[in-house]
Amino acid sequence: MSQQQDIAACVLGALEKYFRDLDGEKPTDVYDMVMKSVERPMLEVVLRQAGGNQTQAAEMLGINRNTLRKKLTEFQLI
Fold it and tell me: pTM score, two decimals?
């Protein structure tokens, strides 16, 4: 199993558990919930792997450095 498949399997399992645990409640804002749940730890790990270098982290993520800074600020990581 590839690393990408490992991550997908974790998300799949978490979402299945989320829907099981709703116990009849109507789900809302699932997309935002998943993205926010995944994005912060991803940013933390990539920034750590880049030794705190935001330019390098942005390159690893495939996003613009200004976008990375905006996200780091949004998640209070800087």
Answer: 0.78
